[in-house]
Each structure stands twice: as C-alpha cells, then as structure tokens.
C-alpha cells in the first residue's frame, strides 16, 4: 500500500509575507525565512539582468509547487525521480497587462503511459495554482517613512 500523499501547505492558516529591498536600478532583493532572491529585468530592458524578472518568478513558483508535489508522488511510489523536470509557460496579454493561459508540463522519464496518466490525475490544485486560477484581491498602498519590520510588530 502506498502512503497517503501529504500536500505541502505553506504556513497553513497564516498569512505569508516577504519583504523586498531596493538594490539599485530595477533590482530588488526579496527575503523570507532567511532566504534571499534577486529580482531584476533583462539587460535589453535597460536593467542589469542579475536575477529573474517578477513574471519569471511567478512561473517558477507555479512550476516549483507542482514539481514538489510530483517528486513526492514519485518518491512514495518508488518511481524514478532522475530527470524530473517541470516546464512552465504563459502568454502575455496587453489589456489589462498580465500573463494568461498558463501551461505546465511535467517530464518524468522512465514512467509508463499508465503511470504518467496516474501522475496527471494526482496533481492537486495547490496554493500557487489556486492563487492564479481564482479571482483575488490585491490591495496596493504607498506611504512615506521607514519600512516596518514584520517580525518586530507589537500587538
């Protein structure tokens, strides 16, 4: 019997929060849980190309979410993980400016056609996928002054 798959839920029941610090030009450093990622724009857009663009990170988040689930599924069933790759694409749309029509392809070498179809059926609608699929609210504000450190807020 195969153990039940545990869908990883990031901070279940808690709000997720990161901070981004401007690092010159179009660059920002995103920080969360002691990890850092550089965001930038391509050189052809007048930036320094020192990191992925925010849109590329969105695709990476979607692919990473599904990839982690696929790896767990394969591992629990003793199926090969070697060569497991996730490719994500989306089409740009102009009005309103956004990404649309996301496609995610999981490449799992060494699986039979039956195993691939079972893997497809097992894909959950995870946290990142649902954030893209369902209508959401994005509240944008601007203020003057120093940034708050969320870990030092007082109640």
Description:
- By secondary structure, the chain is α+β, with helices and mostly antiparallel strands.
- Among the domains are: 21-51, no CATH class; 58-134, 2-Layer Sandwich (GMP Synthetase, Chain A, domain 3), CATH 3.30.300.20.
- The protein has three helices and five strands.
- The chain has helices spanning 54-76, 113-122, 127-133, and strands at residues 19-22, 28-32, 35-39, 85-93, 98-107.
- A three-stranded antiparallel sheet has the order 1-2-3, with no helix packed on it. A two-stranded antiparallel sheet has the order 4-5.
- The longest helix is centred in the middle third of the chain and has 23 residues, at 54-76.
- The radius of gyration is 19 Å and the shape is elongated.
Percent of residues in helices:
25-40%
What is the CATH topology of the domain at 58-134? GMP Synthetase, Chain A, domain 3
Question: What top-tier CATH class of the domain at 58-134 fits best?
Answer: Alpha Beta
The multimeric state of the shown protein is single chain
User: Widest sheet: strand order?
Assistant: 1-2-3
Q: Shape from CA axes?
A: elongated
The helix/strand series, from N terminus to C terminus, equals EEEHEEHH
State the major sheet: 3 strands, antiparallel
| Estimated share of beta-strand residues | 15-25%
CATH superfamily of the domain at 58-134: K homology (KH) domain
* Number of helical segments with 4 or more residues: 3
Provide the low-confidence segments as ranges. none
Mean pLDDT: 87
